[in-house]
Design a protein that fits this description.
Helix content: 25-40%
Number of helices: 11
Distance between the termini: 64 Å
Number of domains: 3
Order of helices and strands: EEHEHHEEEEEHEHEHHEHHEHEEEEH
Strand content: 25-35%
């Protein structure tokens, strides 16, 4: 299935000073020529491959009001994009780290779902060699390093008033700053916390194993099964579904994972996105602080690695060879 582009237009924001951003607005829509299609496909690909935060509109969101007017037919897409770009310019002007860029608005359908994606892309200089072997400078859109993108699932926004996840946006290379101004621009608040959901899932799995009184090997097998299921969902671009996940876990006449989750108020959604970093806890123990960083496979605990809670110490048997070499060299020099 391919993306079905319905409307696409771009504008430009040019930073002149710390407080001034010049606005360059296009006065017509773009045609769906192949270059435009390739641009949207690339933006969508990059967006899907990056970590995202989830949100919903606040009750006083100007952007949502403008989007409603668009859907009601009270304004056209070009005017909507122009006014929204002006609003974005006003928010960007508050943040001197934001350099502006090319703003893309695209309304498209994919798998019967309607989306609106908004991206701000930087431009980069490169060298171009023509047929006469002359070298000239050219500019290109740096799609691969895009970190200012938001996407609205219009279908979910229109059909599910209680949804906390129809709005998604990239977290960005500069952390919360990008999230902050994009949230302000959209008039949005944070919704579903995918990382927290994944961490809660790991906690629920471990406590379920304790409830079922699994031995160390059974617990390791359960962790492995959960991890493999989540990795499969991630690679397929699908979400974690608790009921499907529960079929991967052992049960008895008194306990099953779904009932265990309900009775213990874990506040897990029926479905939620996979967070790769949070799920590493199923395979590894890791931590850092005070100049020390440790990471090891969870199945080594109690075997090669033993923890004494009384002295708060770890005993490691079988130091990795490359670490041993460094220790030996340092010992010899001292």
């Amino acid at each position: 299935m391919s993306i079905q582009i319905e409307k696409v237009v771009l504008h430009k924001l040019i930073r002149k000073s710390d407080t001034e951003i010049e606005l360059q607005l296009r006065d017509s829509m773009l045609d769906n020529q192949q270059a435009v299609v390739n641009l949207i496909v690339d933006i969508n690909r990059i967006y899907n491959n990056k970590s995202k935060a989830y949100g919903l509109f606040k009750h006083d969101s100007l952007f949502e009001q403008s989007l409603k007017e668009l859907k009601l037919g009270n304004q056209d897409f070009l005017n909507f994009s122009q006014e929204s770009t002006k609003q974005l310019r006003n928010e960007l002007a508050k943040y001197p780290f934001a350099e502006g860029g090319t703003v893309i608005f695209c309304q498209y359908r994919y798998l019967a779902v309607e989306y609106l994606i908004i991206a701000v892309l930087n431009s980069c200089l490169s060298m171009l060699v023509n047929d006469q072997l002359d070298i000239t400078e050219t500019q290109y859109l740096d799609i691969d390093h895009a970190d200012i993108i938001a996407r609205i699932d219009i279908t979910e926004w229109e059909t599910d008033a209680n949804s906390k996840r129809y709005l998604t946006f990239l977290k960005g290379r500069v952390g919360r700053k990008v999230s902050d101004f994009f949230m302000d621009y959209l008039g949005a608040s944070e919704g579903l916390d995918a990382k927290a959901q994944n961490k809660t899932l790991v906690k629920a799995v471990d406590e379920y194993c304790q409830e079922m009184q699994f031995d160390k090997q059974d617990k390791t097998n359960v962790r492995e099964s959960v991890y493999n299921y989540c990795q499969t969902q991630l690679q397929a671009g699908e979400e974690i579904e608790l009921r499907n996940l529960a079929t991967e876990l052992p049960t008895n006449d008194e306990n099953n994972f779904i009932e265990f989750v309900k009775h213990n108020d874990y506040d897990l959604e029926e479905t939620f996105p996979v967070d790769r970093s949070a799920l590493r806890q199923l395979k590894k123990f890791s931590g850092s602080g005070g100049g020390l960083t440790l990471s090891f496979n969870s199945d080594l605990l109690g075997e090669r690695i033993k923890w004494d809670p009384q002295t708060d110490s770890l005993v490691i048997k079988g130091v990795p060879p490359n670490l041993r070499d460094q220790l030996q060299r340092n010992s010899g020099s001292n």
